[in-house]
Amino acid sequence: MKQRLGYLALPLVLAAAFATQARADGETIAVFTKNQTNPFFQTVRVGADNMAKTLNAKTLQYIPTKPDSIPEQLSQIEDVVVKKPSAIVFTPVDYKAMVPGVEKINDAKIPVVNITDRSAGGKFLSFVGADDYSLGLETARFLLKTLGGKGNIVIIEGVKGSLTNVDRVRGFNDALKENPGAKLLASQPGNYQRLQALQVMENLMQSNAQIDGVLAANDAMAVGAIEALDGANRKAQVIGINGTKEAIDAIKSGKLLASGDYNGFYQGCLGTMMAIRSLRNEPVISEIVLKPTVITRDNYQPFDQPLEQRTCPTFEEAGKLGAK
Amino acid sequence: MTDITKEALSPPRSFLSQDAIQLFYRLLAVLLICAVLAVLNDSFLSLGNILNVLRQASLTFFIASGLTLVVLTAGLDLSVGANVALSACVAGTVIHTTGSPVLGILTGLACGGIVGLLNGIMVTALRIPSFIATYGMLWVLNGLTYWYMAGETLHGFPAGFRQIGSGYLFGLPIPVYLLLVFLGIGTLFAQRTIWGQEIYAIGANPVAARLSGIPVTRRLLLVYAVSGTMAGLASIIFLSRLNSAEADIGESLTLPAIAAVLIGGTSLFGGVGTVFGTFIGALILTLVLNGMNLLSVSANWQPLVTGIIVILAVWLDMKTRRRAQ
After folding, report:
1. Which residues in chain B are contacts of A67 at CB distance < 8 A?
2. In B, what residues contact A, Cβ < 8 A?
3. Spatial CB neighbours of B316, under 8 Å, sequence gap ≥ 6
4. ipTM
5. pLDDT tens, A294-317?
């Protein structure tokens, strides 16, 4: 027993020795994202890696194998608390259910930055995220402006009850309220899935002879809706959200009107930056809510670069991106 | 166990007459749903919408038709959706890199079939219960697909290839032709061939089947391989219809396929059911969603209504079946 405890202590002693010796760099940042399936989180991870490399630190990625699994992220937290990384950049798979997990991290005295979805509890150094509501509002405003403030509109919703969907759809609806000339024909669920959005769109086209605009709560559903429209030889203006590579290609070819960028890359960059800065006793910004960017034919170029070639903002730029 | 003994002791019965009664009830249910929807919405009975529903039902049917054979042997294949996802991603990559849709289609079918065969080997040679073996396979496939795709999507395929899923021939969508072809093949195979009858016999009583000289292992391997290959076919239709592949499509395909088999009257205990029933099951699921979209039923109520329909269909099935016996 004694011996085993000794083994346990050994890495701690070593880690402590390294920590005091090389305080300036070489930190390990554990990055928690929700799943491996949504391209958005891939952009977050690349952003985090990019920033860590720039600042001479390392990242360790923690991703549930079953997408958005609460028990799996909880057990990953238990692992990470034992492993003791220098700091954690954390996206909760569920903003309420993961609070006990965050408390475990707090109890272990590991500094933690919250990104993307705002946790309902726990202590964080900093929050970096975007605003789903304004993302929905701005993209929908852009679509309605293109249509001249009128026309028949359908909304394709994401997963009912998910925080992102509730806020995005609320944004869509508020933009519609600003345009009394526009008529909402239907608001139907596509569960963020391409196939379901395609089928919903096919069904809606059966009972609606004229659809002018489609507001989809993510890019995959927007592209699904476009496939349905193409299949029926019909035209409508479609917007999506997330700024995925596929969406950029569709904007370039004129099939998609616009996509709202959630700035996953910046969230990864800035979350990691704040974590490392606090470890180095440099000032951090306690809250950054990135302004939504509506990606259109006129401004898609910077988003058309491969992720690996994009550059993270500097700390000075970060201050201007939406700090509170 | 009691079910198997009961089956073994009951006198031999004709599969067709028993199933004919069940199919009658099921068609009645479809007509009822159609009648209600036709009254509530003018566009429902238009030719466009009927073809639309058939095309949408076809994807679920392709997956569920192979699965029906597995369920007939008292097994289950939980990996079908994950298999579609992996096969679609692999086939998509082959088309992108070689530029040859034919090569892509063959790879997709082969990928699906190999996964199915591996399931069959786990069930027969390793004697792992199919539920567990294919559940394990689901994770293996998800892991492979997530790793392989790394959060990316594949999109943009040649126009010729796109015809398979989105094209028309003499005014009918091409997936509807494929649906009719595989409905015919599946029905003939299960009802009119010795292999098909042997599959029913294995499901009804595996011990008796073995004792009467049926090569149970080989038939089970066949059944899982067919289920996998049909998942491969579904992946091709998916790819061609949606013009893209991503890692997370599997989850949304598995449960509807299983539901279609069960609503279609195939018993989880094996030996009872038809491929045609599964087609009706896929049709009912599709009609319900189509109807709710046409009627603009709130997004909140859609899963609830679907759930109730599934429970109701299976309950009615068991009730009428008991009476028929």
Report:
1. 248, 251
2. 41-44, 46, 48-49, 52, 55-56, 59, 139, 142-143, 146-147, 150-153, 155-156, 166, 238, 241-244, 246-249, 251-253, 289-290, 293-294, 296, 298-300, 302-303
3. B25, B29
4. 0.84
5. 999 999 998 888 888 888 988 888
